[in-house]
From TrEMBL:
Pfam families documented for this protein: Fer4_20, Pyr_redox_2
Annotated organism of origin: Kitasatospora cinereorecta
Every 4Fe-4S ferredoxin-type domain range: 36-69
Pathway participation: Amino-acid biosynthesis
This protein's UniProt keywords: Amino-acid biosynthesis, Glutamate biosynthesis, Oxidoreductase
Region span, Disordered: 1-22
InterPro entries, A to Z: 4Fe4S_Fe-S-bd (IPR017896), DPD_II (IPR028261), FAD/NAD-bd_sf (IPR036188), FAD/NAD-binding_dom (IPR023753), Glut_synth_ssu1 (IPR006005), Glutamate_Synthase (IPR051394), Helical_ferredxn (IPR009051)
Name of this chain's protein: Glutamate synthase subunit beta
Keyword Amino-acid biosynthesis: yes
Amino acid sequence: MPDPKAFLTTPRRQRERRDPQARLDDRREVYRPGALLPIINQQADRCMDCGLPFCHHACPLGNLIPDWNVLVADDHWRRAAARLLATNNFPEFTGRLCPAPCESACVLAIDADAVTIKNIELEIADRAWESGADQPKPPDRMTGFRVAVIGSGPAGLAAAQQLTRAGHTTTVYERADRIGGLLRYGIPPFRLEKHRLERRLAQMRAEGTGFRTGAAVGDDDLPADRLRERHDAVVIAIGATACRDLALPGREADGVHQAMTYLTLANRTDEGDHPVSPLSAEGRSVVIVGGGDTAADCLGTALRQRAAAVTQLDINPRPPHDRADDQPWPVHPKVYRVTTSHEEAGAPVADPRVFTATTVGFETDGRGHLAGVRIASAAPGDRHPTPGTERTLPADLALLALGFSGPERENRIAEQLGLTHDARGNLTRDEEFATSADGVFVAGDAGRGQSLIVWAIAEGRSAAAAVDRYLRGGTADLPAPITATSRALHAYVEERRPVRALGVPGASPRTGRTWACGRCGESACRASRRGEGCLTRH
């Protein structure tokens, strides 16, 4: 470390954003270009290079965070890029879209402000592109094996890039007209400008990955079983795109739409498919039902479309500003956060969110058009409407951002390959990402369920390693950061006993407080109980 006391003397500084109101005049990314350059070295210097870096455990990719922090602090940018790209295929995506559970697990965050890991990662990634450090890596020789990847979201793209670099002839099949999945049509450009996606796809093409758009695997003209016959292995990475709905009175009203329908049309408009979005919020009173990232993306999009008013409903109570007792370090806590979209709406002074609000119905104007959304206060615990608290919010556009419940059942991939679904609606697979069909593997949200982009990339890398082992007869040349059953760092308590921030997975025989290791999933993980961290390799 250049300055071993920097974490004590240097305050945390985040990347600067453009003025919130100025951001509403365009769809460009919200951050000031080059805003990291004057401060990033000092921020990397805040890393304590601690002996047991829990940021490793919180990141499913196993990013070598202290390594590249030290290198950035010393201005060794190309070496830092080599460390970052060794574990993460798409750091320019995670540096913009990941909620940074690594920062929640930073040892410095126990009683101070965490290192700005996400900002440092982003600057390394962007500099790697600018300096030419992130070059195509075509394989030295081909293996002769052919692999099909169904789906082009982050899991499918990560799997395809790893398999191509290992020498397998890999083709990505995407049912949409452009490659990218939710990166393309789900994430607004103010969070990820699409030229960054195009740049990465150009790199993958230069390495040898093939892409087929408009290829709806499972349809009559491209059945999944026939695709399997033409390839030595298949990776299913179709995501969890079955939107949850609300079966409430008035749901059929004109003006009630799924959030992904709204975001997809907005993104297609940005791509030039429409002069104006066919589902615009301009001049309309908008109510967004949901409290997650998709809801926040709808909020930012509606504000840019000049909605007359926007309200976001969250059925959960307003989170505290600090960690709750049952979410101790190093888990990623549910705390009050202001996204860039909420900032643009005036938060925290004028927060557009209504917390502890449950939707009970939709009102129409008598002609079938939405006129209002009926809500009530959600009762603690069961979330049922509290009697006497009902009220109506005026609305002529309601967007349902309630999450997803696994892959869409309408596609016939599972039926054609003889696959099954688990209780949560995800495709069934074993710990090595393999399904009951020989040579067929599942990666990403299709098997894990709705999750974060960093988990999708980790799934893609690990599924690629499993395919590589399958094709090579047991030997593996590719890294696998997780298994299909790995879970995020979390804490749980038996018999609802209070939890304290002990900071180490395992179990205390004295108190009975139980921790589950987020790496191997075992509460009795001996290494974790000794405070060494899980040593299981995935």
